[in-house]
Specification:
about 700 residues; alpha/beta; Rossmann fold; 4 domains; ten-stranded mixed beta sheet; 18 helices; about 25% strand; Site-specific DNA-methyltransferase; DNA_methylase_N4/N6
């Protein structure tokens, strides 16, 4: 609306009455969400080597603030001996390459790659990797649409709230409170990203979660309705600051909002129960903490014994005698038709059961033990759950009640009250306090409070749990990742229910406005190492991810406390020490910008290799080009030389876990032939499909 208002203002100078009539007409005929969609949006690629034809800005002299002249767009005509010849509106200028930066519009065609910076591996080799991507999020989303179009289960984002306090940039400038285009910029910025997000989400069953405060919630509501007309949209209020944030001459603000966009069959995962009652969480019988492994003082010898499970009925038919640490578990007697189950993790570590055999038998007799198949583990083919003996006390107190029996004979035990705040549209539990469970948790890891207002770990945990608790292999994306709370919450959720969910976080590497001012004064530029190391991605997001998985702070010291019961609000069913970390793998990457011709000529495979690996599921090693005619892992393969197609197909069929392959060919018939020879396997053509994807996006295919 800013442009029309400017026009009306000009008309008013000549004809005030006509201006009033125009203003009234605009007001009477504007419906829905009206904003300027064609505002230019461009970003600077400080690490891209400029080439002829690029649009660039000339950087300010080191030590000086940016001026209007530094925002002028120049065309690179040629580059020779480190000097770029530039042109703008007939004016030419020669500038050292080090003093220019490539400028790219959201409409421009880009060909992304990924460069691995670091990784952490605390899970099994075959476990999927989380990813943290350092990038401007629009182009990262384009890369993700190539890999995951229609495959994402959940997107959780916490976008800039547009407070006017220099909390986000548009066209490389902070958006301030008196910017007349402020709301249009924010809406245009969000709409472009939401259109890409929509391409990522599974149209049959997925959810988009967006948090916001009072400044833009009304506009965001309309924007979501316009872009997701087929979805069911709900909003919840979350108390994140019980004491209230000051709003001058207004009520102190205690809450923020979360929009829930339910797509297809997506729904809130209601815990089974009766009416307002919720079924209690059963504990895993196998201990999880490292201190309870076999042979330790905790649990002793008495809590390592075989449990014989009938393979047909899943009933426990016998509890074996405890065995000492010097006895091989495979030496215990076998019973026909049963499996002897021991408390063994996926990685082979022998743990202890949570109770002695005598106590377990009492619980079986009281029908509070369950056995379910565990198809993801060879070491423990059955998962055993139970309710501890104090369940009877809770029933006597009226907090719990028995509401029937399952087919396996176990009791259905429910909470008669409590935990109701998580199923209403008002979330007010103490665990959502952003200061205590956001800022304090982050500071305990990174030892710095540079990142402002991180989300409560438990508010994100509960938000995700409501929609992916029944999807143990869910793919979750956060493209406003900030401090990395979403990935931290996914790791915690996986630890609670042995899930294998993946989280992909995208964040830029910006510094705060105050830091930027200081760094410029010190003669630094954004691509300098002494600037980059303090950016969000490098200094906060990846550090938090790596440290939380390893169970240490940034100095290598074990983290204090556990993820158990913050303010008695969250009950995981067991205590999980923060120092134990998470059984998870993660990789840190930086988005790169490649040229089309090296890709077409098969000279840039290693640059896009991580994107192909990401598309194949983020499992196992990343295939790199090493002169072979074809290469495979246990999960995907790449055929470089079609002359070896028969051998490649034979290898793929033999490795039954391979679900995705890439074929380097410019021949459509060869590609079609590979699809026929590998039924049930996703076959992708390189490099045509890769290049075409980004050409469509860049040519305004989303508008």
């Amino acid at each position: 609306m800013a442009n029309i208002n400017e026009t009306i203002s000009e008309v008013a100078k000549l004809n005030p009455e006509l201006a009033r009539q125009i203003q009234k007409y605009v007001k009477d005929h504007s419906y829905g969400l009206v904003f300027e969609r064609n505002l230019p949006e461009a970003i600077r690629l400080y690490k891209k080597e400029p080439i002829a034809g690029d649009i660039v800005n000339i950087l300010p002299v080191r030590g000086e603030e940016e001026k209007d002249e530094n925002k002028v767009s120049w065309v690179v005509k040629s580059i020779k001996d480190g000097v770029a010849s530039l042109e703008h509106d007939g004016e030419t200028k020669d500038v050292p390459v080090e003093d220019i930066v490539v400028l790219i519009s959201y409409r421009d065609v880009i060909y992304p790659g990924l460069k691995e910076i670091d990784r952490v591996e605390q899970g099994n080799p075959d476990d999927p990797y989380h990813m943290v991507i350092n990038s401007e999020n629009y182009h990262a989303l384009e890369a993700l649409t190539y890999a995951y179009a229609g495959k994402v289960d959940c997107i959780y984002i916490d976008p800039p709230y547009n407070s006017g306090a220099k909390d986000w940039k548009y066209n490389n400038d902070y958006v301030v409170v008196d910017d007349q285009y402020r709301h249009s910029k924010w809406l245009a910025f969000m709409e472009r990203r939401l259109k890409l997000a929509k391409q990522l989400l599974n149209p049959k069953d997925s959810v988009l979660l967006v948090t916001i405060d009072e400044r833009e919630y009304a506009r965001l509501s309309l924007l979501l309705e316009q872009n997701f007309p087929e979805a069911t949209i709900q909003m919840v209020s979350i108390t994140i600051n019980p004491s209230g944030a000051v709003r001058k001459n207004l009520f102190a603000r205690s809450d923020e909002y979360m929009f829930i966009v339910l797509i297809g069959d997506a729904h809130v995962n209601q815990v089974k129960g009766f009416g307002d009652e919720t079924e209690v969480r059963w504990w895993y019988l196998r201990r999880l903490e490292y201190a309870s492994r076999r042979g330790t003082v905790k649990g002793g010898v008495a809590q390592f014994y075989p449990i014989y499970v009938d393979d047909a009925t899943l009933n426990i038919v016998k509890i074996g005698e405890p065995i000492t640490s010097d006895v091989d578990r495979y030496s215990v007697p076998q019973i026909d038709g049963t499996t002897a189950v021991f408390p063994v993790k996926d990685d082979g570590m022998e743990m202890n059961w949570g109770v002695t055999g005598e106590t377990l038998q009492r619980l079986i007799d009281e029908q509070v033990v369950q056995v379910v198949k565990n198809t993801r583990s060879q070491n423990q083919p059955y998962t055993i759950k139970y309710l501890s003996e104090n369940y009877k006390e809770k029933i006597d107190e009226g907090r719990w009640a028995v509401r029937g029996y399952r087919e396996d004979g176990s009791k259905i035990v429910v909470e008669t009250g409590g935990k109701l705040t998580r199923t209403t549209t008002v979330w007010s539990s103490k665990q959502y306090d952003a200061k205590t469970y956001g800022t304090t948790i982050l500071k305990s890891i990174v030892k710095d409070d540079r990142f402002s207002f991180p989300k409560s770990l438990y508010s994100v945990y509960d938000a995700l749990k409501n929609f992916v608790s029944e999807k143990p292999d869910a793919l979750i994306i956060d493209f406003f990742a900030g401090s990395g709370t979403t990935l931290h919450a996914v790791s915690l959720l996986n630890a609670v229910d042995d899930g294998r969910r993946r989280c992909i976080c995208v964040t830029n590497n910006e510094v705060s406005a105050d830091e930027q001012k200081k760094f410029i004064k010190d003669g630094l530029r954004p691509y300098d190492m002494d600037w980059e190391k303090y950016g969000i991605a490098n200094y906060v997001t990846w550090v938090r991810t790596k440290c939380s998985i390893n169970g240490v702070d940034v100095d290598g010291n074990p983290l204090d406390g556990d993820y158990g019961k913050p303010s008695k609000g969250l009950d995981l069913g067991f205590k999980l020490k923060k120092s134990d970390g998470f059984k998870a793998n993660a990789v840190f990457c930086e988005l790169t910008y490649e040229s089309a011709w090296p890709i077409r000529l098969d000279r840039a495979f290693d640059a896009i290799a991580p994107i192909l690996w990401m598309q194949a599921g983020c499992q196992g090693p990343i295939i790199k080009r090493i002169g072979k005619s074809y290469l495979t892992t246990d999960f995907y393969g790449v055929l470089f030389d079609y002359g070896q197609a028969s051998k490649f197909c034979e290898k793929v069929k033999k490795t039954q876990s391979i679900t995705t392959v890439f074929v380097v060919t410019d021949d459509q018939r060869r590609y079609s032939n590979m699809c026929k020879r590998l039924p049930g396997v996703e076959v992708h053509r390189l490099y045509e499909t890769f290049l075409r994807t980004f050409e469509i996006c860049g040519e305004g295919g989303l508008d």
